[in-house]
């Protein structure tokens, strides 16, 4: 009963934090099609190492993580390409915050909504502080299914947009590249095969990951 009550409180908290928002409309040349398409394109580039280190240093000085700093920076970028100053960014989370999920094979990924509010033209340090609080609040209730939030908000289903957010952000600092390895019999070898996708669920997504060399690659 207590677990169910905690979940209901977390759901109510996430719903309150998302009320009154609308999908971000980016300033693009082409009008939105009547029906949403999954066709997309990937552009990959390496972030300048010096700028990454400066951003990390600023984040550390403000008690924030690299993800929180990138969230603030992404908000600034999106605001420059839109007239909106109140919008939501979606972030995928592993949703493995309990010990019972550690040894279970499967996909537990959930989407959490990060609300961005820039109407009062905050400084970047202030925006970073807000991003920190927003992320901590969202991650504390990451096990609330995104579908439940959408249902509770009673958002109208529109054929050419996703509910609540149209932009996404993912930051992976775990250097998840598979290292070449062999088993005891030397019969199996594993290596990573890079791949890009032409499928997208949103207008714009930013994925940043680190590799074994310490570089940060964005796509």
Biggest sheet overview: 4 strands, mixed
Ends apart, CA distance between termini: 43 Å
Provide the residue-averaged pLDDT: 82
**Which strand order do you get reading across the main beta sheet?**
1-8-7-4
Structural class: alpha+beta
The gyration radius over C-alpha positions equals 19 Å
Report the sheet-strand fraction.
15-25%
Shape type: globular
User: Would you count the extended β strands for me?
Assistant: 8
Order of helices and strands: HEHHEEHHEEEEE
User: If helices are DSSP runs of H or I spanning 4 or more residues, what is the number of helices?
Assistant: 5
Helix content: 25-40%
Tell me about this structure:
With 219 residues, the protein is an alpha+beta fold. It contains 5 helices and 8 strands; from the N terminus they run H-E-H-H-E-E-H-H-E-E-E-E-E. The strands form 3 sheets. The chain has a 4-stranded mixed beta sheet with strand order 1-8-7-4, with helices on one face. A hairpin with a 5-residue loop joins strand 7 (204-210) and strand 8. Helix 1 packs across helix 5, helix 2 packs across helix 3 (66-80) and helix 3 (66-80) crosses helix 4 (124-140). It is globular and about 55 Å long. The termini are far apart.
């Amino acid at each position: 009963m207590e677990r169910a009550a905690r979940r209901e409180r977390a759901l109510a908290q996430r719903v309150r934090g998302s009320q009154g928002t609308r999908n971000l409309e980016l300033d693009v040349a082409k009008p939105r099609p009547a029906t949403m398409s999954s066709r997309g394109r990937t552009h990959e580039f390496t972030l300048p190492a010096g700028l990454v280190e400066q951003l990390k240093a600023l984040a550390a000085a403000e008690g924030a993580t690299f993800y929180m700093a990138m969230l603030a920076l992404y908000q600034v970028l999106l605001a420059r390409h839109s007239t909106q100053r109140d919008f939501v960014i979606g972030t995928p989370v592993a949703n493995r915050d309990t010990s019972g999920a550690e040894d279970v094979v499967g996909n537990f990924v959930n989407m959490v909504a990060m609300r961005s509010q820039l109407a009062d033209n905050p400084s970047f340090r202030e925006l970073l502080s807000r991003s920190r609080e927003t992320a901590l609040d969202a991650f504390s209730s990451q096990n609330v299914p995104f579908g439940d939030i959408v249902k509770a908000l009673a958002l109208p289903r529109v054929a050419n947009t996703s509910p609540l957010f149209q932009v996404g952000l993912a930051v992976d600092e775990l250097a998840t590249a598979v290292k070449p390895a062999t088993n005891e019999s030397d019969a199996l070898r594993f290596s990573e095969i890079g791949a890009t996708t032409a499928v997208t669920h949103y207008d714009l997504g930013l994925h940043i990951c680190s590799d074994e060399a310490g570089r940060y690659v964005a796509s």
